[in-house]
Amino acid sequence: MLLAFLSLFIIFANASLQRRFGGRIVGGTDTNIEDHPYQVSVQTATTHFCGGSIISNRHVLTAAHCVYFAPSEIFIRSGTTYRMKGGQIHNVVKSVTQKRWKFGQDVAVLTVDPPFDFDKTRMPIRLAAERPAIGTMGNVTGWGRLKEEQTEGSKHLQLVQVPILENDICTEAYKNTAVGGIADTELCAGYIGIGGKDSCQGDSGGPLVIGNVQVGIISLGKGCADPKYPGIYIDVAYFKKWIEEQAYLNF
Question: How far is CA 244 from CA 22, 176, 236, 250, in A?
Answer without folding.
Answer: 27, 35, 11, 7
